[in-house]
Structure formats: C-alpha cells, structure tokens
Amino acid sequence: MSSTPLSPECTRLPPLTGPEGPRLVFSDLDGSLLDHCRYDWAPAGPWLERLDALGVPVIPVTCKTRSELLPLRHVLGLTQTPFVAENGAVVGLPAAWCHARRERSTGPDGLVIKTFGVDIGLIRQRLAVWRARLGVRFTTMSEMPLAAVIELTGLDEQAACLARLREGSEPLIWEDAPERLTALREGLEGDGLRLVQGGRFWHVTGGADKGHAVAWLVTRFAALRGRRPLTLGLGDGPNDVTLLEAVDQPVVIRGCHGHRVAPDQPALYRTTAAGPAGWVEGLAHWWGDGVGRRVTEGAIMSDFHQNSLITDDNAGEV
Ligand SMILES: [Mg+2]
C-alpha cells in the first residue's frame, strides 16, 4: 500500500463505488493500459495511484514476455501484484500470493513462476511442420530479424530483444490468404495448440489463455483470503475475450486495429476512448461515481499472508 501523499490528480477523482469487499483489476497492456503506438500510460496514472492506495491489485494480463514485464512492473508501480505473460502461458506470483505449502521459495527476483503452456520449442517445431505440410506462408517472431520486430512493434532495440525471449507462446505475422488460416488453426488444434489474434500478431499458445490464468488467480486469491473478489477486466483485442469473460465487470477498450472483440457477457462496457484514456473511462464507468467508500478489507496486500485459510478442501491446484 502506498505511503506517499496522493497527487492532486488522484485526489480529484470521484470516490470509488460498488459493493464492499476485496477487488481485483485484470488489465491487458498494449492498446489498453498502454497506448498502442507510444506505450504511454500517463492518463491512467491517477487511477493506478488511487487503486494502489486502496490496496486494489492491478494485475497485468498480456501477450508480452516475462522478460518484458519485469522492468515494466517497476515502472508502473505494480511490483506487489501478480502478472500474466504470453497470453496466459506464464504467471508470476509475488511472495504475498504464494501458497505456504506449494511454493516454498521464490526466485532471485522475489517471484514464483507458474507455467500453464507448453514448451516454446514444441510450438516452433509444430509450426514448422504445419507450414511445410500446408504450404502456407507466415513468419514467426523468432524468425524475424531484430529490425523487423522493432519496426512491427515500435519497441526500442532493448525492449524488442526482451520481446523475443519467449517461454510458452510464439507470435507470427500471417502472410497468406485469410481463409487459409483455418487449416493452420485446425492443424495446431490437433497438436493441442491454439491460434489467437492479438493487436499486431497472431499468437500460438498451448492450452492456456488469458481467461484461464485470470480464473486461476481469482481462485488463488479466494483460497488465500477466504473471500471471492469483485473483478474488473479491461482489454482491446480478440485475445482478451477470455479475460473479459472471466471477470464480473468487463470493459472492451476501443481498439486501433479493427478486429472484432465480442465477449459473451451480459453486462459489458465499451469505451469511446482508446488506450489508457479508454482504460480510465472503463474504471470510471464501473467504479467511478456515487457514494465513495474505502476498501477496508480483503484486498490489502500487507495482510495477505493468510495461508492458514487454505484447507484441504479448497487446496486444489491453484
Ligand atoms: Mg491489447
């Protein structure tokens, strides 16, 4: 929880509304919390500050790699929250989110890493097999020169290098007729792999997706705290659909890519603004007006070490 005084921009926000109890925010990054082109998040700063002060974890759920996320967590002030990388293939847990019996020691960066996907070597091998078998054209990120990754993503050289350190998913640029994607998707499905569309790339993953990782983290939170949290999720791409279907309060942020994003949700808010301005609009829609109240229990990370709440009955693989 933040101990520094709140900024004037933060204190001018309307009070947080909604039911009492713990809350979690699950957020896509590129095109959502981060501007699609400039990777800027300044408009979201006051809301991030407020959620931190209230003890509401903001959990990045992204196609980025773990290597990309680690420095970004520090810049965004999200070092005390978990993260989901590579579209659900990799989950990072800070110590407060670890189970005393299942994750006995953290790594050198203070995190426990869970992997839900399949090995990146297998994904690349199967992609090569299907490309030869089907005669389709695409280029994977691992095959691209670094300059091409920089040009496609707008990342600087260092960040582009980190983007190529894949653990459980492979992005690719499709260079063939759109209708031929179906054959590749079906072939990969036979291997237990998935083809999902992001804002820039198609992504090949194992069985994991963003929604699976979000549900896993909600279950973990409930097991540790003994209460299910109210969850709000934000995303702009087709690869965010499962995330948006896994939360209580979904926000589809207006995209810059033209792809259809239609989660099966009875209550859905679509923003008019894109990127971090849309992120703020979505937060304000669900939690931004009415009678304010502080989150006084449940989501305060400083008292999150209640592993004793886990019983043998709820100690499933979370
Ligand atoms: Mg996105």
Automatic annotation (TrEMBL):
* Protein name in the entry: Mannosyl-3-phosphoglycerate phosphatase
Cellular component aspect of the GO annotation: cytosol
Q: EC number(s) of the enzyme?
A: 3.1.3.70
Signal peptide annotation: none
Keywords (alphabetical) are: Hydrolase, Magnesium, Metal-binding
**Molecular function terms in GO for this entry?**
magnesium ion binding; mannosyl-3-phosphoglycerate phosphatase activity
Q: Name one GO biological process term.
A: mannosylglycerate biosynthetic process
Q: Which InterPro entries match?
A: HAD-like_sf, HAD-SF-IIB-MPGP, HAD-SF_hydro_IIB, HAD_sf
